């Protein structure tokens, strides 16, 4: 029965999924907004963040703070890997057609996927919830896990932090300038190459952060990168490629359509999301809050 408590439970579930997805998709949107690179390997960075979080918890054992150490370590490790890849490999493809960038990032998906299988195998792995967030509480008759509430609060904080960085700092102004006219910024003496590396590392950090945070609620498997990259592309297409708040809005829409679509069409809830994406592309090709890409 569609009671208020049941609908609230669905809303809470959809919002939790949306915030997980936003943390990852925001990195993809930031990379495209500045570098104009559709990074297919973003899902692989998410997967590596999950594996690294599991590995660090194994090294630290059953300590109560192991999860809180594993999350930043995993995200930072993925960020460093992203910086190395951008500096040594991806940078040489900026002046070429987009097809070369797509093929390169797709090749990274295959390479990183095989590397994960070699290092961690193909069995399912899991990380227990941190003791501090292992409980739950009741709201209007529904059970809300503490960890879900933590993710629901963390998502807007990540969005606010990224917005403050982009709009209230000198580095943010340079990032926005690079997104609009990288040639002019370079002519003015700015180190655009270093800025690109930092932005790719920031986007990779968010992907690794999302992967590390999802480990207490989802099994870690080699194929998890494919699922998340499809969902991330849906989110950024709905919200607008390169738009931070568009990505936030797109993630919320995705999560709620998926959560409530199960009630209407249980076997076609994901289909409803694709229909919504197609509708947005027809009505507003740049996304709900996006702007046309400057060529």
Characterise this structure.
It is a single chain. By secondary structure, the chain is mainly α. It has a domain at 22-223. The chain has helices at residues 4-35, 42-60, 66-88, 98-120, 146-168, 170-180, 182-187, 192-214, 224-239, 244-264, 269-283, and strands spanning 136-139, 142-145. Strands 1-2 form a two-stranded antiparallel sheet. Helix 9 runs parallel beside helix 11 and helix 10 packs across helix 11 (269-283). The longest helix is centred in the first third of the chain and has 32 residues, at 4-35. The chain is globular.
Distance between the termini: 52 Å
| Main beta-sheet strand count, sense and barrel state | 2 strands, antiparallel
Total of helices: 11
- Percent helix among the residues? over 70%
Strand content: under 5%
Give unreliable regions as ranges: none
If strands are numbered along the chain, what order do they take across the biggest sheet?
1-2
Spatial shape: globular
Which key terms come to mind for this protein?
two-stranded antiparallel sheet; mainly alpha; 295 residues
What is the topology?
Layout: H1 4-35, H2 42-60, H3 66-88, H4 98-120, E1 136-139, E2 142-145, H5 146-168, H6 170-180, H7 182-187, H8 192-214, H9 224-239, H10 244-264, H11 269-283
Antiparallel strand pairs: 1-2
């Amino acid at each position: 029965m569609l009671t208020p408590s049941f609908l609230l439970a669905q809303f809470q579930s959809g919002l939790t999924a949306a915030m997980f997805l936003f943390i990852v998709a925001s990195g993809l949107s930031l990379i495209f907004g500045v570098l104009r690179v559709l990074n297919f390997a973003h899902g692989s960075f998410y997967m590596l963040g999950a594996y690294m979080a599991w590995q660090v918890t194994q090294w630290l054992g059953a300590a109560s703070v192991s999860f809180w150490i594993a999350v930043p370590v995993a995200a930072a490790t993925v960020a460093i890997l992203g910086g190395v890849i951008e500096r040594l490999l991806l940078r040489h493809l900026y002046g070429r057609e987009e097809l070369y960038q797509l093929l390169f990032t797709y090749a990274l998906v295959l390479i990183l996927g095989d590397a994960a299988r070699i290092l961690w195998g193909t069995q399912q792995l899991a990380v227990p919830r941190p003791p501090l967030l292992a409980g739950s509480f009741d709201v209007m008759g529904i059970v809300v896990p503490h960890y879900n509430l933590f993710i629901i609060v963390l998502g807007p904080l990540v969005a606010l932090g990224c917005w403050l960085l982009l709009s209230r700092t000198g580095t943010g102004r340079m990032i926005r300038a690079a997104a609009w006219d990288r040639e002019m910024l370079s002519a003015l003496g700015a180190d655009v190459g270093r800025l690109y590396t930092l932005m790719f590392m920031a986007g990779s950090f968010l992907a690794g952060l999302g992967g590390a945070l999802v480990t207490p609620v989802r099994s870690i498997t080699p194929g998890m990168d494919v699922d998340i990259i499809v969902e991330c592309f849906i989110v950024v297409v709905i919200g607008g490629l390169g738009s931070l708040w568009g990505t936030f809005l797109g993630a919320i829409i995705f999560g709620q359509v998926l959560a409530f679509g199960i009630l209407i069409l249980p076997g076609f809830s994901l289909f409803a999301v694709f229909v919504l994406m197609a509708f947005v592309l027809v009505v507003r090709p740049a996304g709900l809050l996006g702007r046309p890409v400057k060529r």
